[in-house]
Amino acid sequence: MFAEIVYETGRMSVGEYGSEDEVKSAVKAHNDRAIKGEPGGPVGAPAERVAAVYLYDKHPDDFNQEQTMSADVLNKELENLVKNTQDKNGVVAVDQLVLGVRGLSHPMTNAQDRSGFDSYYKMKESKKLNLSFLEGSAA
Amino acid sequence: MATIVFQRMSQLVTDYVLGASGSITPPASWTMGLSTTVVGSGANMARGSVWSATVSGSNVNEIGSTTANGYARQTIAKSINQAGIDWGTSTFDSTFSTGGQSTAADQVTFGAFSGAPSPNGANSWVLTDGSTLNAGQLYVAADTAATRTFANGDTEKVTATIKAG
């Protein structure tokens, strides 16, 4: 399974693990280091507290690998993109529109659609971990 | 620091940027991986290298491909200076021989590791695509300052700077 770990700093990582318990063990070990002010890895950068953990059956980067959409959905998306790209005179910069179209198949959400410690990915997680397992035994 | 630009990146310039190719196209997303392979010099990475689990010749070998223990590739968004993990505003270096346009990606984080991945020991970071280990295209790689070996609770942070010259 894969876990998306969102840190309190807003940074994020994805890791592959054998089980949910393995995810919890790794996340708690890192979080405990942050509480104790210890380095987070071999380079010596500070460890960071963990704010959210999302579990996936596959890597969330694998969202729509075929880069396809149904014509109906694409038509609606195009309509929105044209509406959002046009200037006050109703003129659309085609290269800007192209960028928007390419972004439709990107696996990450748009920055303006995220808040707090939301997932960075469009793929729906299979589970969001309750972080109560982080409590205790760090000091 | 040794760096290398692989054939696919050059082909994107000639075929996609110049020729608007419909078959040689950038990936849906960029991903970052860690490799045990040293960039150079000598018999390590080459412009025509490929990802492979086989340690031989100029093959590029990824850490964690036998046992991940928390390792996976990290995604970089195809945007500039949006909140999240993407590319920075590029800057220009006018130096005749070594100049060019460069951009730094936001720092990506690997881990937390749940133990030692196998293989362990990252000697380089690689800009690639897809999430399947030892697969996908190679675009750019650079040596880490020293071999990084990972254990339970470790994370690793990489800030990639790409210079097109």
CA-CA gap between termini of chain A: 30 Å
Using CB atoms under 8 Å apart, which protein chain pair has the greatest interface? A-B, 47 and 39 residues
How many strands in all of chain A? 4
Q: Strand order, biggest sheet of chain A?
A: 2-1-3-4
**Ends distance of chain B:** 17 Å
Give the overall shape of chain A.
Answer: elongated
Radius of gyration of chain A: 19 Å
Mean pLDDT reading of chain B: 92
Helix percent of chain A reads 25-40%
Q: Main sheet of chain B?
A: 5 strands, antiparallel
Number of domains as seen in the coordinates of chain A: 2
Distinct helical segment count of chain A: 3
User: What is the global morphology of chain B?
Assistant: globular
User: Which strand order does the major sheet of chain B show?
Assistant: 1-8-7-2-3
Contiguous low-pLDDT stretches of chain A (5 residues minimum) are: none
The tally of helices of chain B reads 1
Order of H and E elements of chain B: EHEEEEEEEEE
Taking pLDDT < 50 over at least 5 consecutive residues as the criterion, the unreliable ranges of chain B are none
Cα gyration radius of chain B (Å): 16 Å
Q: Note the run of SSEs of chain A as H and E.
A: EEHEHHE
Helix/strand structural class of chain B:
mainly beta
Describe the secondary structure blueprint for this structure.
The complex is a heterodimer of chains A (139) and B (165).
Chain A: E1 2-7, E2 12-16, H1 20-36, E3 50-56, H2 71-85, H3 94-103, E4 127-128
Antiparallel strand pairs in A: 1-2, 1-3, 3-4
Helix pairs in contact in A: 2-3
Chain B: E1 3-5, H1 7-18, E2 30-35, E3 74-76, E4 91-93, E5 100-104, E6 108-111, E7 122-128, E8 138-148, E9 155-158, E10 161-164
Antiparallel strand pairs in B: 1-8, 2-3, 2-7, 4-5, 5-10, 6-9, 7-8
Short description:
The complex is a heterodimer of chains A (139) and B (165). By secondary structure, chain A is of the alpha+beta class.
